[in-house]
Amino acid sequence: MKRVLSGMQASGQPHLGNYLGAMKHHIDMQQQYQCFYFIADYHALTTVKDPQKLRQSTEELALDYLALGLDPKKAVFFRQSDLPQHTE
Fold this sequence. Notes:
This protein has 88 residues and is α/β, with parallel strands linked by helices. It contains three helices and three strands, in the order βαβααβ. Helix 1 links the parallel strand 1 and strand 2 (34-40).
């Protein structure tokens, strides 16, 4: 089975462009591929300087993905900063 790895930056409120450009595809692909999706909170550090805002944006993005149909039983869904290998 082919694998997919992709992430979305937690730098603000998701919008229609995020949905059409990435989120919808991520959700659709979980039916056909072994998917690994992450919230790119390390990447967001370049634009979000307030730690509380970053935590809130990360949580909201996770909730949006789940509400749109991302299934944690079909796709691995994680926060980038939870894996030390991202910075090693």
